[in-house]
Amino acid sequence: MKNLTDIADETAKTFCGHFDVAIVGGGFGGTTAAMLLARKGFRVALIDVHAVYPTDFRAEKIAGDQISLLRKNDLLETLVSGATPVGTILNTRKGRVVDLAEVEEYGLLYEDMIASLRGALPPSVAFMVGRVSDLRPERDVQHVRLSDGRELSARLIVLATGLGDVLRRKLGIERNMVRDAHSLAFGFNIEHGHDQAFEFSGMSAYGEDAAHRVDYLSVFPIGNVLRANLFAYRDIRDPWVQEMKKNPREAIYSVLPGARRFLGDFTVTSKIDMRVNDLMQTEHFLQDGVVLIGDAFRTSCPAVGTGLSRLLTDVDILCNIYIPDWLSTPGMDRLKLAAYYEDEAKIACDERAADAAEYRRASTIGRGVRWEAHRGQHYLRRQMRNWIRQLSPRKRAA
User: Fold this and answer.
1) What are the tens digits of pLDDT across the range 167-225?
2) Is the dihedral of CA 17, 22, 24, 27 positive or negative?
């Protein structure tokens, strides 16, 4: 039988220390949160099951307000150092040019995003590879146990586990399904034929017929590869989905025939990645000692590109406003943490993402005169704005 001294020695060997914040999940959100908090001088533990983040079909482009949020937090240069800039996007529909948009966007595979961010983590971040098996949150100190027996404590736990359900369920946090199988996302590499070359940096081809239930095809560079993302509102059992896996070019041209003018006889040079996207939100998330960010709190539809925006908004307000304030006073009870979930910027960002997901689906698959007129007016306005820009004196001078 072990004596108390032996037990104490074994406990000391497995105890990894006390931290200000323990972040569970070393993806995009968890890693950026660890970086921002460490810069502020907090003791941070970042825990992930993967020493090197594996291939994962998730966000593959940085764009829009994500740029400003990354720049605000001095993360943009780190993230896009190995990315491919996309300066212009040719937007098309039914074989016609809608507009040519000048943008600041960057193509980068998700696992490469994580590698760039992890490579820039301050040495003060304790990065632990392992699977968290148990969380014991309390009002003052939170306890984290890994499956290999290691333990640590922290004043706050940030749950950045994305779609992972095990730890969330252990805490009694439930997911409410808003819409299951809201959309499908496909990702693959393409290459042009021997007798042609693409005449654009990036391209989008928008859905041509509501009956096809296809939102858009996006083509953009990542390194020396052209990456394609296709978003559709179809049942996974749909025969077209199976055709997309077996004969993707013809499946695409069956629903986007006008895209042939711009893509020609392209070849798919990689496997077809596919994700089914459910819209879910959590219930009973207000807990002592634990906060949720990104998809762990609420999911988004990737077709509208709001997932990273929501995640970066969560990280921005949590790490720059709330965590420094919380750590300056004793305790970490749920009433204290409620301020984060009640933050106006967070609520507005979450609601914009939810509204955009529903609108995008309805405007893509909506049938009848009303929706046909809506789509026609939308693309006509974009074409007119493009014509006006082309005719402007500044544009002509350029």
Assistant:
1) 999 999 999 999 999 999 999 999 987 566 667 789 999 999 999 999 999 999 999 99
2) negative
24 in Cβ contact with 1 (< 8 Å) = no
DSSP state of 265: S
Closest to 307 in 3D by CA, of 69, 39, 50: 69
| Whole-angstrom distance, CA of residue 168 vs CA of residue 160 | 10
Give first-to-last CA distance, the chain, whole Å: 84
Q: Where are the alpha helices (DSSP H) in the chain?
A: 4-14, 28-39, 65-72, 76-80, 110-119, 166-170, 239-246, 248-255, 260-263, 307-317, 323-327, 334-341, 344-365, 369-391, 393-397
Residues, the chain, total? Answer: 398
Largest pairwise CA distance in the chain: 89
CA 305 to chain centre: 8
pTM metric for this prediction: 0.92
Q: How far apart are CA 130 and CA 128, in angstroms?
A: 6
